[in-house]
Specification:
Elements: H1 3-6, H2 12-26, H3 36-51, H4 65-77, H5 81-100, H6 103-106, H7 108-120, H8 122-128, H9 134-153, H10 157-171, H11 177-197, H12 212-230, H13 242-256, H14 266-273, H15 276-284, H16 295-313, H17 323-344, H18 347-370, H19 390-402, E1 411-414, H20 421-424, E2 431-434, E3 447-451, H21 455-459, E4 466-471, E5 480-485, H22 486-489
């Protein structure tokens, strides 16, 4: 089935799925305050504006492509959350489109159910609205699988190019590509062994129509692309060594946990709480082990189980990684719905039940993404900045909207960990950031942030009136207080300032 036919304007179910995916990912894209990682990534982008390239650090173990895309997004749309999140939101919509292209390999109905499940998946929506790497890796895996399926079924050059493009994109994205590459490869001998016990559905051997020069040319283009990005397009050749040095750092981080270690059952817990379609797909996938199961879906399921096992063994776990574990099980889910609809003779009942499941997942996704996006009781909410940060930023932005010279007023941030504030306040040129053990705050600062437990000590050094707003940056951080000098910020505040120094209070005259 051609791409034009899949995405034809007359194909309204496909367009409805894509429209739903777009609405969930683009609506109020800046609602959620920038995540810790988004703030750090934003600083990398700012640094690129000075150097002209992204310096790949093996200790960062994230590929360079993401930062170049965010850099151009910010250059085109300005320094704001929409600019850095829009590329990832569009790519996340694109992954739903990639799922639909599998219709010729798993069946049109199965691919639509899988794409619909991904379009409302709490993980796909939540992390598709973030400027982080996982959506890139999901797209890379889908491209690779699409290429493999095409080679399996058609053996055409287009499928070979698709596989090479997916592999290149994975290397440009994140070092965990090595896990997925190993699972893709190891699933082949595992499938061979299973075939000896439980033969799959007979399928004719496909004749390959590509030539070795097609493979050489594709690998050459992919390798050159990787070399260009990792070397900063020739400006930073040392970045190429990071392609192999990163694995030593990554292996150490993965084993030590560094505060992110979780139980082996962590991924299953997330599926049980949020990703019901994928969980059912995992259960239905066991049927692929029985005789006469279709060969390619069986291969993908074996690969998926191997990937989940590998991710479960590694102690270091962050919830956004679940995004790259879901997609194979969603295909199994869609295939199971269509199989049950045919075999039971109750197609309406089966599809209605699946629709109710997807609808329930949509409700969970809406609740998470638009209401509880900073609620620590939600496992997907992880190192997330609280909406309370607006108590600091909104007065600054409001005054800057009145008078752009506000961007050059001195400020002081005194917190143990302050990301994403350096990027969030990047347009304010005179803000200094200090640890909690640094010397006293600059005396001329017109806005100050201090930990709440040290606020009394700070107030003893202040000789001016200040508005005061309490907030907390994120979980694991102590409550903080933001001070705004009353003389400067009076236009954007109502009422008298909450802090007035004793020296500013005039003594009452005593009558003789």
């Amino acid at each position: 089935m051609s791409i034009k036919k899949v995405f034809s304007p007359a194909n309204w179910p496909v367009l409805a799925i894509l429209l739903l995916a777009a609405a969930l990912r683009l609506a109020w894209l800046d609602l959620k305050p920038p995540h810790f990682d988004e703030g750090v990534n934003g600083l990398f982008i700012d640094r690129m504006a000075d150097t002209g390239y992204y310096h790949y650090d093996p200790g960062n173990y994230h590929g360079p492509l993401h930062f170049y895309v965010l850099y151009f997004g910010q250059a085109l749309l300005g320094r704001n959350l929409w600019a850095v999140r829009l590329p990832m939101a569009l790519l996340s919509i694109g992954t739903v489109g990639l799922m639909l292209l599998f219709g010729q390999y798993v069946g049109r109905g199965s691919a639509r159910w899988a794409a619909l499940a991904l379009s409302v998946s709490p993980a796909a929506v939540f992390y598709g609205r973030y400027a982080i790497h996982e959506t890139w890796l999901l797209a890379a895996l889908l491209l690779s699988a699409l290429g493999l399926a095409g080679l399996w079924r058609n053996g055409d050059r287009h499928s070979l190019r698709c596989l090479i493009a997916g592999a290149t994109l994975a290397v440009l994205t994140k070092e965990t590509y090595i896990i997925h590459a190993a699972c893709f490869l190891l699933a082949l001998p595992a499938l061979k062994l299973l075939e000896m016990i439980s033969p799959s559905e007979p399928a004719p051997r496909c004749r390959q129509h590509w030539r070795w020069r097609d493979l050489s040319l594709g690998c050459g283009v992919g390798g050159l692309t990787i070399a260009l990005f990792y070397s900063g397009f020739g400006l930073d050749p040392s970045g190429l060594t990071g392609l192999y040095r990163t694995f030593a750092v990554w292996a150490e981080t993965g084993q030590d946990g560094h505060g992110h270690d979780k139980a082996w059952s962590y991924w299953l817990q997330l599926l049980l709480r949020y990703e019901w379609s994928a969980l059912l797909g995992m259960a239905f996938g066991l049927a692929l082990l029985w005789p006469l199961a279709p060969r390619f879906p069986r291969y993908v399921f074996i690969m998926a189980v191997g990937t989940v096992t590998a991710y479960s063994i590694v102690p270091y776990k962050t919830p956004w990684c679940v995004l790259v574990l879901l997609w194979p099980f969603l295909f199994v889910f869609g295939s199971a719905i269509e199989w049950l609809a045919r075999r039971t003779g109750r197609a309406g009942l089966c599809r209605s039940g699946a629709a109710l499941l997807v609808l329930g997942t949509l409700v969970v996704s809406l609740r998470l993404n638009f209401y509880k996006y900073d609620d620590d009781s939600e496992p997907y909410v992880y190192v997330q900045t609280y909406r309370e940060v607006r108590r600091l930023t909104e007065p600054l932005f409001a005054l800057a909207a009145r008078d752009p010279a506000t961007h050059h007023l001195p400020g002081s941030i005194r917190l143990a960990e302050y990301h994403p504030l350096p990027w969030l306040l990047g347009d304010f040129t005179a803000v200094s950031f200090h640890g909690t053990n640094s010397p006293a705050t600059e005396p001329d600062a017109v806005f100050i942030v201090e930990e709440k437990e040290k606020a009394r000590a700070l107030e003893r050094t202040l000789d001016r009136a200040f508005y005061r707003r309490d907030f907390r940056l994120r979980s694991g951080q102590k409550p903080a207080v933001a001070y705004f000098e009353a003389r400067v910020f009076a236009p954007v505040f109502q009422g008298p300032p909450e802090f007035v120094p004793a020296a500013a209070v005039q003594p009452r005259e005593i009558q003789p």
